Amino acid sequence: MKRGARIALFLLVQLVLTALLLEASLRIAAPHAPGLRTLLGTAAQGTDYSEVETLEALLEQSVLGFVPFEIRGGFRLNSRSLCTREYTKPGRPGARRIMVLGDSYAFACGGVPFHLMWHTLIEDGLNQTEPQPVEVFSLGVPAVGPMFQLRMWQLEHELVRPDLVIAAFYVGNDFTDEQGRLADPRLESPLFRASTVLRLGRNLMRLRQVADHRHARAAATGSATTARNGGYITDRTVPDRPPVEMTDEQHGRLMATRLLLWTPDNRERLDILAAHVSGVLERLHQEVTTYGADFLVVLIPEAFQIDEELLDRSLDRLDLTRPEIDLDRPQRILIRHLAEAGIATFDLTPGLRAAGRDEALYWERDPHWNVAGNRVAGRLLTQHVRSR
Could you state, in order of their start, the residue ranges of all structural domains in the chain? Predict the structure, then answer.
């Protein structure tokens, strides 16, 4: 064997051994490192946050982190590192307070400005008609599930002192966040599913895109490190697209992956997941009502439940047809579980479907509501909360 070939073979062997060592190290470390699990794109199995004692420690287990006063999406986070106004001070005399719990739908919804978010619009709408002032505080955190939100309530409710708690449940991923994701060989190569090293590299590249965008926005709106307070808008610009768009392929694969939960092969799995998240929401309901506040679970549909063209494209990826999918089954199962526990729910699906016939309510290549979607959701929820 020639010297050059021997060197190439030696380097190849070293590369393979290094990859195997890294693979083994990641697999050993992942169960003990929530941040690493997030980077690997594998939701924690049965995540339990009950031993987390502070909000800072809780947020450090999320993709948001604990970053008070940093600018995110044109909003300077408050002293609790959340995308909402300060709630540590006494509110307006006689004001009724609403606490919103949720994931990215309650945080920034793909980059929608704070003043156009659905929960801000609820506050604006109620204050136009209600005799008492209303204050709405959103404690949403991206990429978390109901168990995280339960612990958020436990740590923060004494500061917020809410009269109503709204738990925003997104059927697109709140069944599977904290309970593991589904996989399908038609949507992702077996190598990527099997290799933690490849998933880590891919997800780090995606996070780099997000970080570059965030730093650019921070430079345009001012340094976050010099701020002494937070909880206010720094940029009222209305975007025409999300800050970090997926490619058509990435978005299509994501939608098809989420549609797996709707397929006949996963009926039993959906039943199990629904029973689990219902149990978490029942515990949250019990704690909220014991505290003396009202509790409402709001169901947020997945984009393909509203957009028929997107549904057809997602079905094509799975080689399925519409008759093979029970499109509203996730909401129906969850509503049944919660009704049995005496928990009030409000399903946004019918209202969004009606409005979606006239305008797009979701970003084109992002699974969140756009400005119009937030406007419709805000209107529907304002009417519902007012009727309560």
Answer: 1-32, 46-387
